[in-house]
Design a protein that fits this description.
67 residues; mainly alpha
């Protein structure tokens, strides 16, 4: 759950940063685009957020398996 919450928080922070910088957010000189790419990696590695949610749904909420 901590991995899921941290990756979602970093994704929201990266979106806010990109919105704040506007077009300069994609410029290599400002390193915003690099942080944005790294933040995207947090959502997929080492375990996808979808698998985290499926695990929580199955083991915590008692829902049927979805994978």
């Amino acid at each position: 759950m901590a991995k899921y919450l941290a990756s979602e928080a970093s994704w929201e922070a990266a979106n806010a940063c990109l919105t704040t910088h506007g077009g300069y957010g994609f410029a290599v000189e400002y390193d915003v685009e690099r942080k944005f790419r790294e933040t995207r990696l947090f959502k997929e590695a080492p375990v996808s957020n979808n698998l985290v949610l499926a695990y929580l749904g199955h083991n915590v909420l008692g829902l049927p398996r979805s994978y």
